[in-house]
Amino acid sequence: MDQQQPPPQQEKPEGASAENASFTLNSKIDVQALPIRAYLDQTVVPLLLQALSALVRERPADPVEYVAAYLLRHNPMKANPSNPSNPQSSSI
User: Fold this and answer.
1) Cα–Cα distance for residue pair 83/38, rounded to 1 Å
2) What gap in Å lies between CA 40 and CA 82, rounded to an integer?
3) Is residue 7 part of a domain?
């Protein structure tokens, strides 16, 4: 029996929608007034989860430096110099 595999689907940048939602939400809510957990959940956690996912895929020799560099490269609060209209970069 000859079974065909479905064509591979193109993947969207990992967590981009969550990151965009978090960024949009942050601009509408006064983050200084949030409780600690809500503040972290809305500002840091989405990007940190993406960084940790990339970390376990790559398994670099220096994981702390890798996560730090990932967070700096994908910081939604800073525009990407190569694409000013896109606040996140899509590759590591």
Assistant:
1) 30
2) 28
3) no
Any residues with CB less than 8 A from the CB of 77 and at least 6 apart, and which?
23, 87
**Alpha-carbon span 54 to 12, nearest angstrom:** 14
State pLDDT tens for residues 1-42: 555 555 555 545 556 666 666 666 655 668 889 999 999 999
Three-class DSSP category at 87: coil
Residue in the block written with tokens 């430096």: 65
Report residue 69 as tokens.
């560099």
Q: Which amino acid is at 22?
A: S
Residue 81, in any domain of the structure: no
Amino acid at 83: N
Task: Supply the DSSP symbol for 62.
Answer: -
Q: What is the count of structural domains for the chain? A: 1
Residue 61 lies in a domain: yes
Per DSSP, the three-state class of 83 is strand
